Amino acid sequence: MGWIQNINIGVRIVGLVMIMLLTVVAGFSLTKLNSIGDEIHGIAEQDLPLIEKISELEAIVVEELIVIMRVLISNRGIVENC
Prior knowledge:
Elements: H1 2-5, H2 9-81
């Protein structure tokens, strides 16, 4: 620790201020990362199940459209034969 006593007082103050700023920035970063983690957790728990349900509904709608198109096509043939 003798080397610290050999350093100019201005350099010591600047070093101390830099360490304090680094600590503040690190704390702020950790807080923001925590917030981002919470948001991602919320998305995973709420939005993804909704997206899965919407995908299931889309598949059902497509199947129904296929059935409707087949009915229309078969009815068209019946009408043309009359």
